Amino acid sequence: MGPHPAVAAIRLAVRRVLHDVLNDHLAQDRPGAPLVLVACSGGADSMALASALAFEAPKLGVRAGGVTVDHGLQDGSDLRAAEVALRLRALGLDPVETVAVQVGEATRVAHGTAHRGGGGRHAGGPEAAARDARYAALDATADRLGAVAVLLGHTRDDQAETVLLGLARGSGTRSLSGMAAITGQDGRYRRPFLDVDRQTARRACLIQSLPVWDDPHNTDPAYTRSRLRHEGLPALEKALGKGVVEALARTAQLSRDDADALDAWAADAEGAVLDDSGSLDIAALFALPPAVRRRVLRRAVIAAGAPAGSLFARHIEEVDRLITAWRGQGAINLPGRVGVRRQGGRLVIRRG
């Protein structure tokens, strides 16, 4: 008799990713067995992922380890992180690392703690500050241990939430493409569960008698994603029927395919409009489809020094109007002290 369907589903998802990781490792002719880490918070999604990695890795000759990050945002978080590490070791993972990070005083206050110290307010808010600190810790740990991949427990439900948040920002196709299955330097981060729903992961933990920790922040209405999870998506399913999560996840993949194609087109088109001085030919830009032209413009202003995280659709639209709705307007100032002006038949982009 085979494993429960939920357990079989999470194992199959991990097995597919490990096959890819192993093939990449062999193709690069690296010595020894590759080390794959699972990032585990102790929640149902990441505990299910850890259990599947522990089961599948030895069968493929892959070393399996784990890392848990203590953000220091709640009283007793260090003890909870130590407990998660013990659970990972009990699954047979080795090495297992616990990493404490500092995410700033403003973030701690926002999370309702009394800790002091750290950095100032993060431009993206407390959730973004915690995320940045977490990924920095994961990167450092993977580098130190020589891990070829870090598995993340994002599920299909997380993907659906990400698509809706992107829709609310109105930032275009790329923002609707959600999370990629592979991201990070050299494809370090892998998300095996993007086709697995949250309920399946939780059921797999229950079947395997794996204790899980439910982060109270995930139900705190102070956070946008929490409100979306507990109010927004249920309201959509009530109005539109079941299947909303699956449809949003499909939208993410279709949008990603479209965005990738448009990005590739823009990269090719860039050479035809860019001259040696770094200015862009107005007539050649005007001839491009708007979706391609705006990508070329975004690439150009980022290359000039504008931080990608601070560039919004409205910034690129203003630059685009220098091409499509020229009325003699002056230079446009962008984040990162980057200025864009129209000079004759050229678009000049300079920092300073």
TrEMBL record:
It is found in: Cytoplasm. Residues 280-347 form the tRNA(Ile)-lysidine synthase substrate-binding domain. Residues 36-231 form the tRNA(Ile)-lysidine/2-thiocytidine synthase N-terminal domain. Belongs to the tRNA(Ile)-lysidine synthase family. The N-terminal region contains the highly conserved SGGXDS motif, predicted to be a P-loop motif involved in ATP binding. Ligates lysine onto the cytidine present at position 34 of the AUA codon-specific tRNA(Ile) that contains the anticodon CAU, in an ATP-dependent manner. Cytidine is converted to lysidine, thus changing the amino acid specificity of the tRNA from methionine to isoleucine. This is tRNA(Ile)-lysidine synthase. It comes from Streptomyces halobius. The lineage of its organism: Bacteria, Bacillati, Actinomycetota, Actinomycetes, Kitasatosporales. The gene is tilS.
